[in-house]
């Protein structure tokens, strides 16, 4: 048991806590969602428009938790909606990694 915990901890230290990666097909769909939906408010290159920039520079100081919670639940009283009916938790974790790394 203890060994398992150590292993998980190690996985979490490298990259964004290695949540199960979405399949290649899902990754393509999520990237399309970014281009087609998120860009509507965050700008065509996600550089910021009505919504704030989602570029790595802009997100660098924000915790993964904050960004994951925002995408999952949206932000009350703002245009940012909840995406939890579209994206699985693992997919949101992966997406935050993509946004933060700009890849
Ligand atoms: C209808 C407009 C709209 C759409 C579509 C939208 N957002 Fe947002 N988003 C916003 C606004 C406005 C904010 C800022 C909310 C605030 O004032 O705190 C925001 C905030 C965020 C934040 C937090 C950024 C920060 O600096 O704290 C993230 C991350 C985010 N959006 C991701 C996404 C993703 C990913 C999508 C697509 C799946 C998306 N948004 C779609 C309007 C939108």
Secondary structure topology:
Elements (H helix, E strand, L loop, with lengths): L1 H12 L10 H19 L13 H4 L4 H10 L15 H13 L2
Helix pairs in contact: 4-5
Any overview of this molecule?
The chain is mostly helical and 103 residues long. It contains five helices and no strands. The protein has a single domain, classed as Cytochrome c-like domain (Cytochrome Bc1 Complex, Chain D, domain 2, Orthogonal Bundle). Helix 4 (64-73) crosses helix 5 (89-101). The longest helix has 19 residues, at 24-42. The radius of gyration is 15 Å and the shape is globular. The site of heme C has 19 residues, from helix 2 and helix 4.
Summarize this structure briefly.
By secondary structure, this protein is mainly alpha-helical. It is built from 5 helices and no strands. Helix 4 (64-73) crosses helix 5.
Offer a few descriptive terms.
single chain; about 100 residues; Cytochrome Bc1 Complex, Chain D, domain 2; globular; binds heme C
For the record, what is the CATH homologous superfamily label? Cytochrome c-like domain
On the 0-100 scale, what is the average pLDDT? 89
Q: Pairing-aware structural class of the strands and helices?
A: mainly alpha
Total beta strand runs = 0
Q: How large is the share of residues in beta strands? A: under 5%
Termini separation: 35 Å
Question: How many separate domains?
Answer: 1
């Amino acid at each position: 048991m203890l060994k398992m915990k150590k292993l998980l901890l190690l996985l979490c230290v490298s990259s964004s806590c290695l949540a199960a990666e979405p399949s290649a097909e899902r990754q393509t769909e999520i990237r399309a969602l970014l281009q087609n939906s998120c860009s509507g408010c965050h700008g065509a290159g996600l550089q910021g428009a009505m919504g704030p920039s989602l570029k790595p520079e802009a997100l660098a100081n924000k915790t993964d938790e904050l960004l994951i919670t925002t995408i999952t639940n949206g932000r009350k009283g703002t245009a940012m909606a909840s995406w939890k009916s579209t994206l699985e938790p693992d997919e949101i974790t992966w997406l935050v990694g993509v946004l933060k790394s700009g890849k």
